[in-house]
Predict the 3D structure of the following.
Amino acid sequence: MLVFPQWQTVPFHWIWITITFLYGFRRWTNGQTAGVLGAVIVVTTIAMLRAVGDTAELSEIPLMTCVFLGMVWHVRRRQDAMDAQRRVAAREREFMRDAAHTLRTPLTVAQGHAEFMLDEIAPGTQVHEDATVLLDELRRLARISDQLLLLATADHEEALLMAPVALDRLAADVGRRFAHSTGRTVTVNTPEPVTVLADEQRLRHALDALVENALHATEDGGAVTIDARVRGGRAVLEVADTGVGIMAEDRQRIFERFARGADADAERRPGTGLGLPIVRAIAEAHGGTVTVESEPGAGTSFALTLGAPAPGLRATAPAHELRPATGTA
């Protein structure tokens, strides 16, 4: 304003615009805000008087002050709302963690008593059937409790035990285990060794959830495939099936807690509605994402994208098809 007086108030407005942008990048205390605002008012007033020499132009200073204070008010309201949302999310995670811990012991005791009672009841009786239902429901509650506990901590990056993980070996191991336990064919494609820095147990849980969902959504004879590969410079675990598919309106909702599909068979399929939210939380804790592509009636593909491949362990298992063990139904 002093060096180029012919520009008149252009530098003046740029000064106010600059402090507005700066405030948006960092939260200031009331003292800092008052100090910066006071300094800008004094400096711009002196500069305007010397450069322009017209006191009528000074009316812009209180106007710009009001505009700046209005912006401060709106920014603080937004920041307070975000802080409140983070506090609610933190309390929710804490509640889930405490509830899961509290429920674990009584559920374990009740499950043990139910198993003992079931052993003492003659099979084929109504009492035996009722006790079996009771035990199944207790096991389901225990599983929900475990999943709630995992969900409460799954998105905490500091809780991860990071180490080199061979994704091709992990995919082969998960595929082999499901093939033998379910009697279903699971195809594993690992065209090359893929190693990333990750928490192997968390990745195994996420992959288990995706494969289990794929098997539930696919009839006997359908295809379930696990891929471990590098795509776009990042390691990817992908689980695809030829099952019922997911409706377009459900593809984002399925990552919400306890959400189930809107199709007629969704409620009859087993599950707690926590598997995919846990998968997403695990992916985000690793700095990655989980995406879904699906066509109703033609199948679904979930892609768990992680970080860039890293040197480390190398799996020796080649790409192959994992078939059920001989004699399995």
User: Anything to note?
Assistant: The chain is about 55% helix and 15% strand. The first strand starts at residue 163 and ends at 166. The mean pLDDT is 78. The helical segments are 10-25, 30-51, 60-120, 126-154, 167-182, 200-217, 275-285.
